[in-house]
Amino acid sequence: MPAKLGIVAGGGTLPARLIEACRARGRPFHVLAFRDHADPAPLADAPADWIRLGEAGGVVELLRRAGVSEVVMAGPIRRPSLAELRPDWRTVRLVARLGAHSIGDDGLLRAVVREFEIEGFRVIGINDVLDDLVATIGPYGRIEPDEQGWDDVRRGVSVARALGAVDVGQSVVVQQGLVLGVEAIEGTDALIARCAALKREGPGGVLVKLPKPGQERRADLPTVGVATLRNAAAAGLRGIAVEAGGTLVVGRDEVAAAADELGLFVIGVAP
Amino acid sequence: MPAKLGIVAGGGTLPARLIEACRARGRPFHVLAFRDHADPAPLADAPADWIRLGEAGGVVELLRRAGVSEVVMAGPIRRPSLAELRPDWRTVRLVARLGAHSIGDDGLLRAVVREFEIEGFRVIGINDVLDDLVATIGPYGRIEPDEQGWDDVRRGVSVARALGAVDVGQSVVVQQGLVLGVEAIEGTDALIARCAALKREGPGGVLVKLPKPGQERRADLPTVGVATLRNAAAAGLRGIAVEAGGTLVVGRDEVAAAADELGLFVIGVAP
User: Fold this and answer.
1) Cα dihedral B136, B141, B147, B153 sign
2) Is A165 on the interface with B (CB under 8 A)?
3) Which of A37, A96, B87, B224 is deepest in the core (most CB within 10 A)?
């Protein structure tokens, strides 16, 4: 019998996919869902507790009570202000240890992973449960970048790495060598929507989405899925490049089919 | 009699300020205004030619014909796609020399300065004509950053430098250590407007606007003016930091008065 898995659930479809995977393999699990972030629908018939972001202490207690020993974190959580947190004492202690005012998102997530470990949990990555999720090298679907597309991918990778080095964003949109937009906390969908209004004539732009260097990969890998492809196509982009081994592609076959249907390239590039 | 000044005019109020300065000093001048960028109103009674962006060859001819020997470039020009350019042969030659697909905005502007020099013009900076425009160290107006404000300024400076190193953007908005937004080609006003919707509770954010490392300072220095302050205040920001010696502050006294009126700090920081 495998250890009971604690699923710490933020937004998006990954928590539901983890639940499916646990059920398919008969693995016991318990969900800790963040209010205002996790989608309630797939959790309706799952063993789950709902908490708000400030209850860091509650997370540990609830996971212990549920008999969880391994923890996986799934889905984005918008970083709140301290005022919104209304933090409990354990959260305050954590924030004090971190120095809340000088850290980026990744610093925060790395600290959360460390906290779980201090409390005796084993923290695993989503890709340890859903092993077909991590991007592979090469195209998804039939379309590949042309020369201009590759130029834009390369420029996007260099900008994303420079940003990642200062713990900002994961995504960049480049068209014909020009950086149309760079993601901070607005999220990839907002970035894509904004770039629709900034685009130039001629060949469309490319979305490049990479993990930050040194990103805590058990906490928050950049993710693309069919919704990302639909947004990209609607904004006039020509393709999406992700880092093989470092970005999650949710639904390999669905993404490949959507890429062909929408006329986009989706490509995993070597780190 | 000083040499006739060629004013290559993009958007904003700087071309009008240069014209005023020339008139005040009795210096002869001739304006080359880019269609869809320069504001026609202040050019109505100035000696001026209007051209479109693709007419690089025309610029040189018209400046020669006007008897110009010194050139100053003023005001932002949105970088067009090659399709929008409908370039003439000289522009094509220039673009071919540059490799249009791999350069950022600054690479382009540096090349334009070099082209002017190859054609025998002396290219001067705006601050050579308007000497009170370059940001100085210390506060404009009475308000200074508190500890949180300084933390946000420092974080913004480090992110802006990382971005500038890959020739992207000039501006970053930071609130309580969190990078709310980063500027690519959307412009500082669009960045500020977006951050209004992303802000957290508690002390407001800070706009940091710096030149890129190695930026061609005769072509395109980052600029703030009273309009920037009004936008920042409307978006809930607490202050603006600029690089002393590297950012233009348009209207020292007006900016200081607006800062006090709006309750913002505006501060020049050492490079």
Assistant:
1) negative
2) yes
3) B224
Cβ of B101 and A176 within 8 Å?
A: yes
From chain A, pick out residues whose CB is under 8 angstroms from the CB of B178.
79, 104-105, 185
**Alpha-carbon distance A213 to A195, whole Å?**
25
Instruction: Classify each residue of B209-221 as buried b or exposed e, where b means 16 or more C-beta atoms within 10 Å of its C-beta.
Output: bbbbeebbbbbbb
Is pLDDT at B68 greater than 90 in this prediction? yes
Q: Which residue of A has its CA nearest to B204?
A: A81
Cβ-Cβ pairs closer than 8 A, A with B, add up to 119
pLDDT digits (tens, 9 = 90+) for B9-55: 888 888 998 999 899 889 999 999 988 888 999 888 999 999 877 66
| pLDDT tens string A233-265 | 999 999 999 999 889 998 899 999 999 999 999
Token pair of A68, please? 């969880």
A79/B178 Cβ within 8 A: yes
Task: Classify domain B5-129 by CATH architecture.
Answer: 3-Layer(aba) Sandwich (3.40)
Q: Which of B158, B180, B201 sits opposite A185 (nearest CB)?
A: B180
Q: What is the mean pLDDT of residues A54-70?
A: 83
Q: How confident is the model at residue A217, as a pLDDT? A: 72
Enumerate long-range contacts of B20-29, CB under 8 Å, 24 or more apart.
B21/B129, B21/B130, B22/B129, B27/B2, B28/B1, B28/B2, B28/B4, B29/B4, B29/B5
List the single residue in B101, B182, B200 with the smallest CB-CB distance to A169.
B182
Least-confidence region, from A39-53, A82-96, B31-45? A82-96
The Cα A170–Cα A163 span in angstroms is 8
Looking at residue B79, its pLDDT comes to 60
pLDDT mean over B153-174: 93
Contact B268, B248 (CB under 8 A): no
3-state DSSP assignment of residue B148? helix
Domain with CATH 3.40.140.80 in chain B: 138-269
CB contact residues (below 8 A), chain B span 197-216, against chain A: 198, 200-202
Helix (H) or strand (E) holding B265: strand B265-269
- For CATH 3.40.50.20, the residue range(s) in chain A are 5-129
pLDDT at residue number B262: 98
- Report CA torsion sign: A62, A67, A71, A72: negative
Superfamily per CATH, domain B138-269: LpxI C-terminal catalytic domain (3.40.140.80)
**B158 has a chain A CB within 8 A of its CB:** yes
Categorize the per-residue pLDDT at A225 as very low, low, confident or very high, splitting at 50, 70 and 90: very high
